[in-house]
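Quick one: structure tokens for this chain, please?
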Amino acid sequence: MQILDGQTTSQAIKDALKIQVAQLINEGKKVPHLAAVLVGNNGASETYVGAKVKACAEIGFKSTLIRLEDDISENKLLGVIEDLNNNPEVDGILVQLPLPKHISDENVINAISVAKDVDGFHPISIGRLVQGLPSFVPATPHGIMLLLEHYKINTKGMHAVVVGRSNIVGRPMSILLSSNTNPGNCTVTICHSHTRNLKEICLQGDIIVAALGKAEFVTADMVKEGAIIIDVGITPVVDASKKSGFALKGDVKFDEVAPKCSFITPVPKGVGPMTIAALMKNTFKACVENN
């Protein structure tokens, strides 16, 4: 069993981007600039956005963090996005989800310029991904593919089981794994809350991507020997032994599943850091393509 170390891999990607940014500066070209919009004061969102801003500083990107009150109207938020769309200094725009219930995620995502859609959530970005055309790939699935590539895992011909069908992870993950690429070229099964015989399907998986948001849902009896396990989940679970009062658990019961695997991502320090690395790569791409 080998750990797929997202933290180390992410650092390697950021180090490479840092060199590329230095080259841009030497050539007198524009440095990538990411604008992050944070609505309200959700603790998890604060943490995620903070990590993204920190990564920008580490690589040498410019970043702008726009904080908005949670009672802001949808129209005012859309106005902020329009201003960012029209700002030539900004290369990438991300609006941290989830948003307050009175604001439509769909309307906000659709309002972001496709050229600055570094989260890869815009319907045009997803449509291009489906057709195998160049596009911004959603950061978490993109990060997972980068991790498989880093460890030189040849997925050709494998049966991949994706548990979860969200537009942010599950669906784009299935598209990437089935694409004519390496990593890729898998036969993919998507499972969800209405899937019958989930355990039996998972047992067929050479790769299992667990992205359903239920702590320790995937157990050892659902995994065949030698499987590759990608754990996307991260759920805080009460743990009195921890200083914070809780522990972060993935969707996979790591201690009992790991011994059966050929490769497995830990939680934390697995998929999470790779998501940020992929976002940074998308932002660099946006800068180079738009300037």
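The chain has two domains: 28-113, 139-272.
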